[in-house]
Design goal:
It comes from Anhinga anhinga. By secondary structure, the chain is an alpha/beta fold. It has one domain (1-193). It is 52% helix and 10% strand. It contains seven helices and five strands. The protein has helices spanning 2-39, 51-69, 95-108, 127-132, 140-148, 159-165, 179-187; strands at residues 84-88, 112-115, 135-136, 152-155, 190-194. It is globular, with a radius of gyration of 18 Å.
Length: 195
């Protein structure tokens, strides 16, 4: 009985966090769809029309971050007022990055457009959430346009490789991925490396 209960507890702990996060991601998308339908919003997903929906979802994620993970954010005051590139470590489940985006929006009323791998855009049912939160495929041209429009752009050069093959030492696995540096030079913006 003890072995079975310990095994069940381990399985629940191992799967409950990723499943909860996945549930909340899809719940966020459903809330956006409801907002879009009830308000009959036809505006561009990055426009200010979506700010009240963004605030609701950001508050939701921020509460989850505080309760479940005790999340804290330091150094937001060091972010540039204008455009800039944030370079971050890609964990196995980059939930801390979702928390960062939420807190940044709540504190600074600022969007940070995020570069994501192409497979993210193939996930079913998340199109509106990706558009409203500023997730983009991240070609150099798209990053330059976003920076020229005054946005922060975040990039994780290690991407999925870093998420799958790194360990608790948080060793960067960028390989030859240095395109973000060229984008920063081309746009003449500051690059900030975050951990």
């Amino acid at each position: 009985v003890v072995i079975v209960s310990l095994t069940m507890s381990a399985i629940l702990v191992f799967f409950i966090v990723p499943l909860t996060i996945l549930f909340f991601i899809y719940l966020s998308n459903i809330l956006l769809l409801i907002y879009q339908r009830n308000s009959e919003v036809k505006a561009h997903p990055l426009s200010d029309v979506w700010d009240s929906a963004r605030k609701t979802i950001a508050s939701f994620w921020d509460i989850y971050a505080r309760i479940w993970h005790g999340y804290e954010l330091h150094g937001v005051e060091n972010l540039p007022e204008g455009p800039g590139i944030l370079v971050y470590y890609h964990g196995a489940i980059p939930v801390d990055y979702l928390y960062f985006l939420s807190r940044l929006f709540l504190w600074k009323k600022r969007l940070c457009l995020s570069v994501a791998d192409h497979f993210v855009f193939r996930l079913p049912g998340l199109k509106l959430l990706l558009e409203v939160t500023g997730i983009m495929p991240g070609t150099r041209e798209e990053c330059l346009i976003a920076l020229k429009n005054g946005h922060l752009v975040s990039i994780s050069p290690g991407g999925v490789r870093e998420a799958l093959f790194s360990d608790e030492s948080y060793q960067l696995m960028w390989g030859n991925r240095k395109g973000f540096a060229q984008v920063a030079l081309d746009a003449k913006v500051v690059s900030i490396i975050c951990y």
